[in-house]
Amino acid sequence: MLESLITSKTRQRILVKFFMNVATNGYLRGLAEELNESTNAIRKELNNLLEAGFLEKEASQNKIIYRANKKHPLFSIIQKIIRHHIGIEAMVDMILQRMGEVEKVVIIGDYANGIDSGRIEVILVGQQLHASYIDKLGVKIENEIKRKVEFFLMEEYEDDKGLVIYENHKPKE
């Protein structure tokens, strides 16, 4: 879907980087190395996204740091498109429908850092999760989103690392 809307692979990867996790930021050379692209290609796309208002920049020491512009009127829409492109929305829906009482879903690893590596690491937090069903569900999710998914089941997760994509705010009894 994203490929038909945005034909530049470099622009797609930059949007994934900054809109998958809004806490993510980057600078020109770091992005060029991370995305394995030339600095000129990265600079061109950063400038286009800045001009459109999708990114903002800030000078820090002798680097220009880029991040998603959360104040842009289309920010939430772009973020939803990116998460749909990655398959996060479909994955969360399938997890919540079939995994028992899920309290929290946290993305860790590459995707939490905005890197579309093809392998999504997911922590599922909850009591009495259907652990025996996770293998079957994992295969269904992988077929749906076309990415490898690795699940980690936990009863508690209080670490601030990762990207929380679902949290049930029901009070505990």
From TrEMBL:
One of its GO terms (biological process) is regulation of DNA-templated transcription. This is Transcriptional regulator.
